[in-house]
Amino acid sequence: ILNNNSDIALENSLNKKKKKKKKKKKKKAKSSLEITLRPLRITDAEDFLKYAGDEEATKFTRLRTLTSKEESISYIQSYCIPHPYCRSICINDCCIGFVSIKPEKGEDRCRAHLGYGIAREYWNQGITTGAVKIAISQGFQAFPDLVRMETFVELQNIASQRVLEKLGFQKEGVLRKFGYNKGAIQDLILYSLLSTDPIP
Ligand SMILES: CC(C)(COP(=O)(O)OP(=O)(O)OC[C@H]1O[C@@H](n2cnc3c(N)ncnc32)[C@H](O)[C@@H]1OP(=O)(O)O)[C@@H](O)C(=O)NCCC(=O)NCCS
């Protein structure tokens, strides 16, 4: 029996602590999922649609939201497979999204563009941060002339900014009205990571 205000306060604080502990445990369990990267395959088409067929997940990217398995097959075949580095982000070898690194050509091959995205049901579990960390290390090894990876992020895309910051990318500034996406010209934040930068 709780007979005064301080007992109630103590009970509330204990409950809050218990809830916090439970949440932490859940997060830890989720983040122990095994993340692997491999080239995308035609047979990933249906799984890939969970990301690429979702308007909410593609709204901050230049990808036109895919609407069918056939479109997904065609995208994997014509874009992902010939790409210099486009990997499926996998949980238990099942495709849940992608990460790509595309070096520029000729004298600009010192820099590459980084892209990534995963299906909504997997957001906020540390998966993209883990996957991009692996990709960065593979990318600098696969393209020896590469010294800089960069990416452009919309101002409202807080989750993506957080991923980059967790990986040690530096925010270089806001490029005003820099790129066209989903019907409007957007301000984009430019982030970069040099091969010599420490990754936390
Ligand atoms: C951006 C995206 C790839 C992030 O993937 P993810 O697996 O959820 O990323 P992580 O879990 O590794 O990290 C997300 C971080 O953002 C934080 N976050 C997410 N939404 C947030 C919000 N609205 N405000 C503040 N922080 C937020 C999370 O808490 C987490 O940070 P933490 O680890 O410090 O708690 C994912 O949301 C996605 O696929 N978006 C659509 C495609 C896209 O935007 N691609 C990038 C284009 S530049």
From TrEMBL:
InterPro entries: Acyl_CoA_acyltransferase, GNAT_dom
Superkingdom as given in the UniProt entry: Eukaryota
N-acetyltransferase domain: residues covered: 35-195
PROSITE patterns to which the protein is assigned, alphabetical: GNAT (PS51186)
Record GO terms (molecular function): acyltransferase activity, transferring groups other than amino-acyl groups
Protein name per the record: Uncharacterized protein LOC112490261
Lineage, opening ranks: Eukaryota, Viridiplantae, Streptophyta, Embryophyta, Tracheophyta
Gene: LOC112490261
